[in-house]
Design a protein that fits this description.
By secondary structure, this protein is mainly beta. The chain contains three helices and 17 strands. An eight-stranded antiparallel barrel has the order 5-8-9-11-12-15-16-17. A two-stranded antiparallel sheet has the order 1-2.
């Protein structure tokens, strides 16, 4: 009988000990960490929101336990969340420090890897650069009007052409056989007659101090008048005949342009060479025309203003569509010196446009 009572006592002690041990394990194991709203699969294969309630209907006393490293077995398939536990989330990057009264500015965006900068990204703070399938073909911009702007390689530039106009007045020109018959006496308003020049240029050498080239061109000058009577009887009368004086100057020379870069705004230049002055004098009556000619030289100095300096996109379009690299507005002073009996010595102030291609 005593042995039976002793055996029952040992069984009760062992049961109490096992219950205490199980209670300690429950207290030491932390509850699984969940976000307030997590997504769990439902029975129908969809996704539903599960809100976890942190309040239990039964009061349970939990003894604090020493935190331990979570084991892989603590995370079951049912307790996995799209957001990891708070102790495993990376710390957010610190925000940039901005002093009071200062405005935070994003770092400037880089322009294209190669080529000239077309526009400034700082003017478009809300715009961003995204890859485009046509970028490899040179696409650099799409406008609001759906215009596709491509960057193309600039064409080679070694030629130029210019057109100029100015007032030409050969005040020293007269008939060598009759010095009293001057150009001013026969052609009224001779100081109001324009002259036109067209010149082609070969730019042969781009040196560190500027461009050197050869030029050849021609022009035209036309004046009209009524002449004058030689005798004293009709000295005060104006003849009815109309005389037309036509000169076609031909120029050959060399030019130096003080240009060190392609995008230079102001380009001074100087040139000089020889000039031929073939001319003819026509009448509206039955008499035959007269012909003559003279040789001379010239030197000139001027300034070119690069009009394509102000708009890069216009320059790209001119080059891609017409092969024109740049356009200049020019102003020039030219001194002409005649070396033969028909003296065309004069000053010629002119202006025009120069196109390089």
């Amino acid at each position: 009988m005593n042995k039976l009572l002793l055996t029952v006592a040992l069984i009760l002690v062992h049961a109490q000990s096992s219950a205490a041990t199980a209670q300690k394990k429950v207290a030491a194991t932390p509850p699984p960490s969940r976000s307030i709203a997590q997504f769990t699969p439902n029975d129908e294969g969809g996704v539903e929101d599960e809100i976890e309630d942190d309040f239990s209907t039964e009061e349970t006393v939990v003894t604090p336990a020493t935190p331990s490293t979570p084991d892989e077995s603590d995370f079951s398939a049912e307790e996995d969340s799209l957001i990891p536990p708070a102790d495993l989330q990376p710390e957010p990057a610190p925000a940039p420090e901005v002093q009071m009264g200062q405005r935070y500015e994003e770092p400037p965006r880089p322009s294209a890897e190669q080529g000239e900068k077309i526009f400034d990204w700082s003017k478009y703070p809300n715009a961003k650069e995204v890859p485009h399938p046509f970028r490899e073909k040179g696409l650099i911009r799409i406008t609001r009007d759906k215009d596709y702007i491509y960057k193309v390689d600039e064409s080679e530039q070694n030629r130029a052409f210019d057109f100029r106009i100015g007032m030409f007045n050969p005040i020293n020109l007269k008939n060598p056989d009759n010095p009293d018959q001057t150009f001013a006496n026969n052609y009224t308003h001779s100081d109001q007659n324009p002259a036109f020049l067209f010149t082609y240029e070969w730019q042969l050498w781009n040196s560190p101090i500027g461009k050197w080239g050869l030029r050849a061109g021609a022009g035209t000058f036309v004046a009209q008048g009524n002449g004058h009577f030689e005798g004293a009887v009709n000295a005060g009368l104006e003849p009815r005949e109309i005389f037309t004086f036509v000169v076609i100057p031909i120029n050959i020379g060399a030019v130096y342009r003080m240009q060190w870069s392609k995008r230079q705004l102001f380009v001074p230049y100087a040139e000089g060479g020889g000039t031929a002055f073939p001319f003819t004098e026509l009448r509206d009556d039955d008499k035959a025309p007269k012909f003559g000619g003279s040789l001379g030289g010239y030197f000139a100095g001027g300034l070119g203003i690069n009009l394509t300096y102000f708009d890069a996109l216009s320059r790209i379009r001119l080059d891609s569509e017409y092969g024109i690299n740049s356009v200049y507005l020019t102003a020039e002073y030219r001194a002409i010196v005649s070396m033969q009996r028909y003296d065309f010595t004069s000053d010629f102030i002119n202006a025009g446009f120069l196109m390089e291609y």
